[in-house]
């Protein structure tokens, strides 16, 4: 079929009209949708005063915001209402959760308590004060401690509290240790001086064998934390992050490019969240998968001092500013808060978060629509 000249002109006018309408919609629609379906951070709902200034650790546990300090483990709902507690005093507390299990310890004590839900699953003691503790989804606990005659000792307990493995070192100082989700592999990150250089050593062991499975040294790196991604170890250091295979081969790395690692969250299943700052106080939040591939970034005009990743969302805060991000770096909500804080904790459904300081917890909700 052939179009006449008049038909072509009419068709051109129709197409031009459609294009103009499309441009208008593209400009107006996002604001309209954001007003209807967007999100905003509420004013502070409530503040819980803990009546004591002490060291503390925090997390989101079984649908509650939890704080562990010298008054024990207390849990609050999203409206800052007290709901339950487990009294186990800790003056230098460590808390780690995985699945249904929570490990509680005190770096001024030799005792570790593991809860399953709200009940004590088991209790164990180690030779010297606890330095770090973690629990996996099967309820196996890994404890970093010390022992006379050694620089470090790592002990592994099963979900009945029975000791299954003990690692000693008289040459290097262990910084972190983790057990794989299947409870078959132990990874230890330690440091050793070589002249003026501080080197990181990653060693892996099979729980049923004494001999080292693999060992790799990374020069001029300070290790912060490690975790497992399947059978691979993920290491966060002061300059770079690495993945290391079960055989001790470096499989991937992520370079911070001279930026300072201010804060991070490595413990969740799928994502790693990093808060990286530059000299001018500007920060970038980077979300990686466990293979260290970048999923998204978000530039912040403030120094990010704290963050928390939960179920694919990241809450970040610093200098009175707060954002909640998707894993691709896009902001879901932004706002401000008036009180200083040291930790931020995001709920499982990301619709509420808490900012903690030495003696209070401030609660906020994320609401739909624009803030009036």
Features of the shown structure:
disordered N terminus, five-stranded antiparallel sheet, mainly beta, four-stranded antiparallel sheet, 372 residues
Q: What's the end-to-end separation, in Å?
A: 57 Å
- The total of helices stands at 1
Helix percent band: under 10%
Estimate what percentage of residues fall within beta strands: over 45%
Apparent shape: globular
Secondary structure layout plus pairing:
Blueprint: H1 5-37, E1 39-41, E2 46-49, E3 57-61, E4 64-69, E5 72-76, E6 82-86, E7 93-98, E8 101-106, E9 111-116, E10 119-125, E11 132-135, E12 141-147, E13 150-157, E14 163-169, E15 173-179, E16 185-194, E17 197-206, E18 212-218, E19 223-229, E20 232-237, E21 240-244, E22 250-255, E23 260-265, E24 271-277, E25 283-289, E26 294-300, E27 306-310, E28 313-318, E29 321-326, E30 331-336, E31 343-346, E32 352-357, E33 360-368
Antiparallel strand pairs: 1-33, 2-33, 3-4, 4-5, 5-6, 7-8, 8-9, 9-10, 11-12, 12-13, 13-14, 15-16, 16-17, 17-18, 19-20, 20-21, 21-22, 23-24, 24-25, 25-26, 27-28, 28-29, 29-30, 31-32, 32-33
Describe this structure in words.
The protein has 372 residues and is mainly beta. The protein has 1 helix and 33 strands. It has one helix at residues 5-37, and strands spanning 39-41, 46-49, 57-61, 64-69, 72-76, 82-86, 93-98, 101-106, 111-116, 119-125, 132-135, 141-147, 150-157, 163-169, 173-179, 185-194, 197-206, 212-218, 223-229, 232-237, 240-244, 250-255, 260-265, 271-277, 283-289, 294-300, 306-310, 313-318, 321-326, 331-336, 343-346, 352-357, 360-368. Strands 1, 2, 31, 32 and 33 form a 5-stranded antiparallel sheet that branches. A hairpin with a 5-residue loop joins strand 13 (150-157) and strand 14. The termini are far apart. Mean pLDDT is 87; it is low at 1-5 and 25-35.
């Amino acid at each position: 079929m052939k179009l006449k000249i008049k038909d072509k002109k009419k068709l051109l006018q129709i197409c031009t009209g459609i294009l103009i309408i499309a441009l208008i919609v593209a400009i107006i629609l996002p604001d309209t949708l954001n007003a209807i379906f967007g999100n905003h951070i509420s004013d502070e709902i409530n503040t819980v005063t803990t009546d004591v200034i002490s060291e503390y650790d925090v997390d989101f546990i079984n649908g509650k915001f939890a704080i562990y300090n010298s008054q024990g483990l207390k849990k609050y709902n999203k409206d800052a209402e007290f709901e339950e507690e487990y009294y186990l005093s800790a003056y230098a507390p460590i808390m780690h959760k995985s699945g249904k299990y929570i490990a509680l310890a005190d770096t001024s004590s030799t005792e570790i308590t593991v809860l399953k839900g709200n009940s004590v699953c088991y209790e164990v003691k180690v030779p010297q004060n606890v330095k770090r503790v973690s629990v996996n989804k099967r309820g196996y606990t890994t404890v970093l401690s010390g022992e006379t005659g050694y620089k470090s000792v790592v002990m592994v307990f099963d979900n009945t509290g029975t000791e299954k493995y003990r690692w000693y070192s008289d040459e290097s100082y262990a910084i972190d240790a983790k057990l794989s989700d299947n409870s078959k592999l132990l990874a230890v990150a330690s440091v050793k001086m070589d002249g003026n250089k501080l080197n990181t050593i990653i060693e892996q062991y099979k729980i049923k064998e004494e001999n080292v499975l693999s060992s790799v040294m990374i020069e001029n790196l300070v290790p912060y934390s490690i975790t497992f991604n399947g059978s691979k170890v993920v290491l966060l250091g002061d300059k770079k992050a690495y993945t290391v295979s079960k055989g001790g081969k470096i499989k991937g790395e992520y370079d911070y490019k001279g930026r300072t690692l201010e804060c991070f969250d490595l413990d969740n299943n799928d994502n790693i969240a990093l808060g990286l700052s530059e000299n001018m106080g500007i920060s970038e939040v980077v979300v990686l998968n466990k293979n260290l591939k970048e999923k998204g970034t978000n530039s912040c005009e403030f120094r990010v001092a704290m963050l928390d990743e939960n179920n694919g969302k990241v809450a970040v805060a610093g200098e009175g500013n707060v954002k909640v991000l998707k894993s691709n770096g896009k902001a879901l909500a932004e706002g401000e808060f008036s009180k200083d804080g040291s930790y931020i904790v995001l709920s499982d459904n990301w619709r509420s978060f808490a900012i903690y300081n030495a003696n209070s917890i401030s609660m906020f909700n994320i609401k739909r629509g624009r803030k009036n």
